[in-house]
Amino acid sequence: MNDLIISNYEERNKQLLEDCISIWVEHDFQSRWFRVKGYHELGKRLLEEPKEYGDRFVPLVAESLGKSERTIYRTIEFARAFPDLDLLPEGKNISWYKIIQKYLPLETRCIGDAMLVYICPNCNSEHKKSDIKFIRKNI
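The chain above was modelled as a monomer; its predicted structure follows.
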């Protein structure tokens, strides 16, 4: 009788643990996907704006959202590179970090006294920060 009670107790604990893990994994997945969707929608919205705003608008959006300007530019690059989220090679099984590392066109590299250079995917050359507007327009 005691063995049966212990066995039922262990089985219930095992089931509870499996349920908890399943819940956590599903919500973690959804959280990553919602972040990706949010960044994509932000980038699409910023792409809809007329060019007359220029680069003045990005610092304002970045400050208002508590994000870096680089993150805001990346949302724009993301929306430009993948106008439809169904085009993502890995589908919904992706994170914002992976998108930045693997799929966004511009890479940055620090050289010297923390001066940023950008690696253009089209010509594979390094460009100074001042050249970035030219690169972004030609991608």
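Residues 106-139 form one domain.
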